[in-house]
């Protein structure tokens, strides 16, 4: 029992040490962009999606911000929600619509790895991932159109254009104050969620889930090479890219089969990602809303990927 507590504490500390600075920076960037009014210049990027979804026009600010920093975009939405500017329904739709900018945002970390392992073929795979994010965002935009009948107007956001004329020190002070006010309750929830997740990791819960998925994967109508690539993604995406590249070079797997196996691997890897996603979503949105948003996002993305794999098998 003591060893379980020690191990889980070490895991939790390791995760918080890496994630908390990024979260605080994300919240601060969101508050600074709002207070300074800078993000208003980029809001047209998100306006088509926001208009389609019946969200308030100001949610385009969060959508545009997510292209720069996903945490900052989500923190901006939480800011709107806690101040009563948007309701829970708008919070859900707007947060789920950030799938596309969140995927594009990872270009600087994904493209170099994909090029190093898969070469120019990696660019094609990245394009498919971006397409999946775009489809996911569009799905939730249409969901918003059906669920949100009368969009709210966040009149108070207009004041941030005027704030751009204020001295930077004053804007910085306001951003820091709001960052502190909004981050404290988020961090309290995140620490608790992280430790519970760490306990599950130390107890072997996620390893058990992984073994169940591996047993299930053995019954899929795929070649052994495809299964091996898909399963390796549960350990590491880089491992999956490297293994796939070697199999492709050796002529043991086709390009279509490789894409299919990598996409399937990204679905199976959801089990592995839970240990990171749970503290992130629960910390930001709370236990109930965070869990719901996380599961809806994962389920929708997985369904889109599986449909795409099915289409590839029929059409290509």
Automatic annotation (TrEMBL):
This is Nucleoside recognition protein. The chain crosses the membrane at residues 123-148, 190-209, 229-250, 262-281, 293-315. The keyword Nucleus does not apply. Keywords: Membrane, Transmembrane, Transmembrane helix. It comes from Palaeococcus pacificus DY20341. It comes from the Archaea. Signal peptide: none annotated.
């Amino acid at each position: 029992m003591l060893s379980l507590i020690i191990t889980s504490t070490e895991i939790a500390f390791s995760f918080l040490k890496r994630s908390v600075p990024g979260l605080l920076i994300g919240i601060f960037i969101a508050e600074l962009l709002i207070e300074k009014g800078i993000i208003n210049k980029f809001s047209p990027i998100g306006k088509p999606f926001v208009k389609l979804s019946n969200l308030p026009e100001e949610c385009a600010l969060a959508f545009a911000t997510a292209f720069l920093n996903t945490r900052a975009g989500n923190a901006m939405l939480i800011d709107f929600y806690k101040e009563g500017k948007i309701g829970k329904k708008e919070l859900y739709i707007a947060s789920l619509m950030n799938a596309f900018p969140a995927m594009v945002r990872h270009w600087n970390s994904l493209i170099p790895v994909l090029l190093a392992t898969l070469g120019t073929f990696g660019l094609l795979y990245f394009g498919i991932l971006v397409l999946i994010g775009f489809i996911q965002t569009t799905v939730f935009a249409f969901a918003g159109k059906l669920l949100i009948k009368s969009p709210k107007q966040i009149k108070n956001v207009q004041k941030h254009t005027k704030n751009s004329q204020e001295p930077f020190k004053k804007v910085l002070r306001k951003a820091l104050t709001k960052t502190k006010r909004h981050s404290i309750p988020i961090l309290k929830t995140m620490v608790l969620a992280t430790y519970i997740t760490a306990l599950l990791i130390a107890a072997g819960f996620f390893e058990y889930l992984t073994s169940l998925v591996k047993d299930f994967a053995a019954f899929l109508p795929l070649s052994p090479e495809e299964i091996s690539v898909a399963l390796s993604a549960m350990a590491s995406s880089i491992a999956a890219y490297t293994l796939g590249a070697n199999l492709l070079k050796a002529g043991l797997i086709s390009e279509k089969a490789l894409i299919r196996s990598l996409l399937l691997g990204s679905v199976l890897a959801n089990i592995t990602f839970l240990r990171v996603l749970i503290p992130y979503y629960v910390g930001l949105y709370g236990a109930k809303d965070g869990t719901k948003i996380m599961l809806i996002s994962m389920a929708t993305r997985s369904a889109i990927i599986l449909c795409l794999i099915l289409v590839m098998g029929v059409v290509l």
